[in-house]
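REQUEST FORM: STRUCTURE PREDICTION
Request ID: SP-0412
Submitted by: Lab K.M.
Chain count: 1
Length (residues): 180
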Amino acid sequence: MPCWVDGIWMDTPRSTYPAFSRADRRRLSQALAQARDARLYRRLQAVAEIAAGEPVDEVAKRARVGRSTVYRWIERYLAEQAPSALADERRSGRPRAAPVLTDKKLRQLLTSDPCRFGYDANTWTVPLLATHLRTQGVVISARTLRRRIRAARFRWKRPRYVYSERAAHVGAKKGALSDG
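STATUS: Completed
RESULT:
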């Protein structure tokens, strides 16, 4: 059944959430333009659509969440009147594996020669480094070690063998083969 909203006849009834002002709608649209986090963007978009008069049911379907979740987002926004209220709060997360392995210590190890520690290798590999750390009492998986190396902005590259000059006998052998 058509209804009259903001001077326009609409086919579907729109929700009229009286708590949103024009300033709220402007604040939400500015925050949407600046949002870089996908979760925050999704929440801002849902609340902005409600502020624009969209029904909660339709917004919840588009956001693929329950109506109660949309209502919770609206309450969080209206409590502070700030888009930042919709951002995820900091979480403690899992404790860091091997906290004694700092970036500084990792850098020292990676720039050192494995031969100095008695290993028969020219460069560090992740399994070799993990073994070395285990002997020092630092238990860390290869996967975590790779992640920590990447976080320390190191990149693995295979060593390239560079010969200083070409051997004199190589050219002589090739010349001898082609002549005969």
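NOTES: The helical segments are 22-34, 38-51, 56-63, 67-80, 103-111, 126-135, 142-151, 168-179.
Reviewed by: T.R.
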